[in-house]
Amino acid sequence: MFSSKQEKDFYTPDNRPGIASVPGLNSVVLRGLRADEAGLLRDFLYEAIYIPEGVEPPDRSIVEQPELAMYYRDFGSGAGDNCIVADDGGRVVGAVWTRIMNDYGHVDDETPSFAIAVYKEYRGKGIGTALMRQMLVLLKEQGYRRASLAVQKANYAVRMYEAVGFRTVGENDEEYIMVCEL
What we know:
The chain is of the alpha+beta class. The protein has four helices and eight strands, in the order E-E-H-H-E-E-E-H-E-H-E-E.
């Protein structure tokens, strides 16, 4: 796995190097992001932007704005930098990544913030949930006590975050700030 704390593949709880399957989807495996794939995070960040139905999507260049670029720029060099991808026959179709940064979901300087995206055609199949659960296991193994994220209130993913253990600890007009105790 491409991580600031370790330079090896992600290990599942049963210690099989680099592989975990998604329940019900035998062709999809979870593995660590390889260093040569770090550029994918820019694309997945765009996919992570919640766009309500009927709203025109922003230009892809939006991810170059500093408040968004912090999610992927120099990934692998910072505290809490971890990434797990969903791989379907050699194609990365989803990613969850964390880093400690002063982002929308920031709660303190010891808590990694989450970002997650799954390509539209793969959503609703349990991939996002599997990615989230594996990342929470990894963060706990690394000694983190909690993880955080920010999500727009209208985003259907709120239910998934709650199902894997995140709870709302704050909110503003548009977003919930959620934390999962590890």
